[in-house]
Design goal:
seven-stranded parallel beta sheet, about 625 residues, 3 domains, Dihydrodipicolinate Reductase, domain 2, Rossmann fold, alpha/beta, TIM Barrel, nine-stranded mixed beta sheet, about 40% helix
């Protein structure tokens, strides 16, 4: 939480209360001449603590003074530090124009939630709700003075539960002598955001520090009087899947190390939970410890259904670093992973061209497999893997699983419920930029090309929603062959890096899928749209779980309305969701959703696209698969 650093500009000594810290922060960050350097330093400190998402405090970028230049700089720096903003925190004014300014800032930075307070929620509720729906936002009221659950519910007001809820601060509950566990349980239906905070028992003597003397002296999670571990363990029980923000804003002292340690404690508490099935966790080993491995490990940490028991990589140092952080055994060779009796599932995160060999060896060795995409580079190889898994009575699961995201499931439900009428046309844009501009090793990406590397995402989503493809035609080629790496080393690409495919699905939907390693993310053509006889539904991004979902009836000529997600969206992409779903399926003895047969079908589609690029002739698609079920919470 950005507000953890409220005393940063005061040398971590805030003697005159919160307003002092707020004023100092705004004075420090407001000048546009110095904003970039100062905001860059702030984000760098947060990213260094190991966080991938943050709550942006209004003191660091205030809606009353943020200019378009401030916003553009903030957007660029957030991307640089790979930080997603899940909430915008503060007080949101006493006038409707001020509130709308805060909403507009959120929309410009793709922030899905306002977290804080405004008297307008009581005095001009209808207009506040209208603004939230216009900008596609959730408003989460943060409790401070409320001394009971009833007072919090009264602050929220009745109705509009889809977009008006609570950002529950566990520290303030304890300070106001509210039963924390009972409050979390009672407020679960309105819980939009959890601010996990611990406070020390009130001091006997006065210190002159405002919050300390109020009995609100924040501390490292687990060191105070708030039952934070019990709260974390309760979350799966009450069905909460939203964001947990680590909050610790001391009036004296730098909180950053305590915040980092608090996050580690939360992960440990999550890992120690028992699976909801009551059965032993499914034990997985990671093969391939590149950058994505850490994201997988972070994603599965809150889920007691999965236990990471080790890792292996051709570079042993990477496996050692992975296990040092996430636990488990360092295996020297793939054969050691396969021979290990403690391994139930192998998670294959190796490079594209190693997938077939690794999956084959694991299946032949009796291990279930979840693999990164694509399952193989040719349909013949993919089909052999599917057949081998069936022969061995083993499970073969495969990414991408981004269709399991909250935004994607919300849009799919609109389609299934008939809200857009009969769907007939879909557009998917996959413009991934020039890989060498942001990745230190662009070679493998260009070897496989954008179809196999990134078009696989919307192709998997479209076949999930609308069933198998039956025919493909495509055009494209190499448009910019001579490239230069970030280190200044020239290289030439030969695999087409711009393609446009038309995929005809057996259901009747015709989809245009464009994929490029030339056109950058600054294009206005992005996301995914599905057009039906009655309306259109669109996703700002086809991959990000908390992306915007938009709906426009046919008679609405301009704009669209943002649709609230079926449940709070996980920030970014939860890559490990496929492993968790596989583990739950194993425990519940049911089919898993990310089936190898669908992954193989998508490989046939992608192979056909590349075939069309060679001779211009359409290709028929012959494979099929059983469509996966929607997620249980999205039915």
């Amino acid at each position: 939480m950005g507000a953890n650093l409220v005393a940063r500009e005061l040398g971590y000594r805030m003697t005159d209360g919160w307003g002092q810290g707020d004023a100092a922060a705004q004075a420090h960050f407001r000048p546009i001449e110095t904003f970039e350097a100062r905001f860059d330093a702030l984000l760098g400190e947060i990213a260094a603590l190991g966080f991938e998402a943050m709550d942006l405090w209004s003191g660091h970028l205030h809606y009353t003074w943020a200019t378009p230049e401030h916003v553009a700089i903030a957007r660029r720096l957030l991307a640089k530090h790979e930080l997603r903003v899940v909430s915008y925190a503060g007080g949101f004014g006493e006038s409707l124009p001020a509130f709308r300014s805060a909403c507009r800032l959120c929309a410009e930075l793709n922030i899905p939630m306002l977290g804080g307070g405004t008297p307008l929620l009581r005095s001009r509720r209808a207009e506040v709700v209208a603004a939230l729906r216009e900008f596609g936002l959730i408003f989460a009221w943060e409790n401070h003075p409320e001394k009971s659950v009833e007072e919090i519910l009264a602050a929220l007001g009745d109705g509009d539960e889809d977009i008006v809820g609570v950002a529950l601060d566990t520290g303030w509950l304890a300070t106001q002598k509210v039963d924390v566990l009972a409050a979390v349980r009672a407020l679960a239906p309105r819980l939009k955001h959890l601010h996990l905070k611990d406070v020390l028992a009130p001091r006997a003597e006065k210190t002159g520090l405002m919050f300390v003397d109020m009995g609100h002296e924040t501390c490292r999670l687990g060191d105070g009087i708030v039952p934070v571990e019990a709260v974390v363990r309760m979350l799966p029980e009450i069905g909460y899947t939203g964001v947990i923000t680590i909050e610790h804003e001391p009036e004296e002292g730098d909180p950053r190390e305590a915040v980092r340690e608090s996050a580690e404690r939360v992960r440990a508490w999550q890992k120690a939970q028992r699976p909801r099935s009551g059965k032993a966790p499914v034990r997985v080993a990671i093969v391939g410890c590149g950058n994505i491995a850490g994201q997988y490990a972070e994603n599965v940490a809150p889920h007691p259904e999965v236990e990471i028991v080790g890792a292996q990589d051709l570079d042993r140092a990477r496996a050692e670093a992975f296990c040092a952080r996430y636990g488990g055994t360092v295996y020297d060779r793939l054969e050691d992973v396969i021979a290990a009796p403690e391994v139930d599932v192998v998670v294959n995160l190796t490079i594209h061209h190693a997938h077939v060999e690794v999956i084959t060896k694991c299946l032949e060795g009796g291990k279930h497999v979840h693999s990164e995409k694509p399952i193989a580079m040719t349909y013949a190889e993919a089909k052999r893997l599917v057949d081998l898994a069936a022969e061995k009575n083993l499970r073969l699961s495969c990414a991408p699983i981004t269709w399991m995201g909250e935004a994607q499931q919300t849009a799919w439900k609109l389609v299934r419920d008939g809200r857009i009428g009969t769907p007939r046309v879909a557009y998917a844009e996959v413009n991934w930029g020039r890989i060498e501009s942001w990745h230190p090793n662009p070679g493998p990406f260009y070897e496989v090309g954008p179809v196999f590397d990134v078009a696989v995402y919307p192709l998997t989503l479209l076949t999930t929603w609308f069933g198998p493809a039956k025919r493909v035609t495509a055009a494209g080629g190499v448009v910019y062959p001579d490239r230069v790496t970030k280190e200044g080393k020239p290289f030439t690409i030969t695999t087409p890096e711009w393609t446009c495919a038309v995929v005809e699905l057996a259901s009747g939907v015709r989809a245009r899928v464009t994929a490029s390693f030339y056109v950058g993310w600054n294009t206005r053509q992005h996301g995914l749209e599905v057009h039906g006889d009655k309306a259109m539904v669109a996703l700002d991004r086809w991959d990000v779980f908390d992306t915007g979902v938009w709906f426009a009836p046919l008679e609405q000529r301009d704009g669209a309305t943002r649709v609230p997600l079926l449940r709070p969206g996980v920030p970014g992409i939860e890559f490990g969701r496929g492993i968790v779903e596989l583990a739950q399926a194993i425990q519940e003895n049911r089919p898993h959703r990310a089936q190898g047969a669908q992954a193989a079908h998508v490989v046939e589609v992608m192979e056909a696209i590349h075939g069309c690029l060679g001779d211009g002739r359409p290709r028929a698609i012959h494979s099929t698969f059983d469509a996966p079920e929607p997620m249980d919470w999205a039915r």
